[in-house]
Amino acid sequence: MTYKRILTIQDISCVGQCSLTVALPILSACGLETAILPSAVLSTHTAGFSGYTFRDLTDDMPSIKDHWVKENIKFDGIYTGYLGSTQQIDYVIDIANATNKEGALLIVDPAMADHGNLYPGFDMEFVEAMKGLCVKADYVIPNITEAAFLTGIEYKEKYDREYIDSILNKFSEMGVKNVIFTGISYEEGKTGVVVYEDGNYSYYQHDFLPNSCHGTGDIYASAFVGALTGGKSAYEAAKIAADYTVECIKATAEEENHWYGAKFEPVLGKLIEMLR
Which residues sit opposite 77 in a β-bridge? Predict the structure, then answer.
């Protein structure tokens, strides 16, 4: 297999097991040369910590891209996570156009909302900009809240297959190519992932674990990207990412007071075995 280089663009939360501190080791464990472009640097993530520091790196992104172009640095794919502004979304599109190899993938985790609400600091202008990025992407990895905002369909906590199909159909109408739809539950005690690829629907179901952990979305997206870029089909990658995320949540449950993130590191070996 060709040794592939992938770029991931998202923030660094120095403590808290999310964003780039999750993406870099997981993608590396998947056998990929992993380049990073931090959108911001925070002392910790924002969920449960107070008084954290924040350094916006938006203004650095164009000059970093220009240097890569000068050095003829190219990527086999770009994977985006949390982006802090519409300006950063515009820069991501420019970076992809300038540095992606022919046939390279653009994979977008539209990390902007959960539990029916946008994250603090985001508004509908940001949602509109994110729509534009999702249309350009080869794969989009939303949760149900993000999917509702992106499609303009009312968010529902309780839903059925017909509701999910309406969201997927709207994505298709928008021109979104492929959707990896996470956290979809049709049965109590179960959850799963919908893979909507080239208009075809498939579903992988697994047990729902009640102990939620911050950063599991980043873990899932990173494992999916790593498996897909490494040659797995979208369904295989979605399944591997789901199974690995479950293992991370189980490992975290064994640790008392580990509230700020998921223990993904001790089970990286299981991810490597799954990829084999």
Answer: 6, 105
